[in-house]
Automatic annotation (TrEMBL):
Keyword Nucleotidyltransferase: no
Alphabetical UniProt keywords: Signal
InterPro entries associated with the record: SoxY, SoxY_sf, Sulphur_oxidation_SoxY
KW Glycoprotein (keyword) present: no
Source organism of the structure: Congregibacter variabilis
Gene3D superfamilies on file: SoxY domain
Protein name as it appears in the record: Thiosulfate oxidation carrier protein SoxY
Pfam families, per database record: SoxY
Stretches assigned to the Ig-like SoxY domain: 45-148
Signal peptide bounds: 1-29
Length: 150
């Protein structure tokens, strides 16, 4: 009985993996148009439409003033705001400004640490989306060694 149960679970796992492999990866992409945008305004419009943004420096947005290597720029974002749906990172001077977008489940802690690529010195924006508003903070980062082939 034990061997039959193990084989059955293995077969179920193989079938589940095969079904998942048959699904195109585009299904998992949240917003192809936003990630393909070639300027910040286009990316923001694809993400949020015409929803107004409020400049807000009250949330923690850490990014170095000077990045010695543009291929690994550390970024930390956290907030105590209620009802955060997503946090997006945009780099104005990158060929595709939307670098990352994190979605949060209700009740989760809206914070993350990551690294982004920057091809040159630029403004970096963190946009927090709640159910009823958008909040943005912008920091300028000087890159001394390009990360996108520079």
């Amino acid at each position: 009985m034990q061997g039959t149960l193990t084989r059955r679970r293995f077969a179920q796992a193989v079938l589940a993996f095969a079904a998942l492999a048959a699904v195109p990866l585009r299904v998992f992409a949240r917003n192809d148009k936003a990630f393909a945008a070639v300027n910040t305004d286009e990316a923001l419009k694809a993400l949020f439409g015409d929803k107004p943004m409020t400049v807000d420096d009250s949330f923690e947005f850490k990014v170095p003033d000077i990045a010695e290597d543009g291929s690994i720029v550390p970024v930390t974002v956290s907030t105590e705001m209620e009802g955060v749906k997503s946090i997006s990172l945009l780099v104005d001077a990158n060929p595709n400004p939307l670098s990352a977008r994190f979605h949060f489940m209700p009740g989760s802690v809206p914070e993350f640490k990551t690294r982004i690529k920057m091809g040159e010195s630029s403004d970096v924006r963190a946009v927090i989306e709640t159910a009823d508003a958008l909040y943005v903070s912008t920091k300028n980062v000087k890159v001394t060694l390009g990360g996108c082939g520079g």
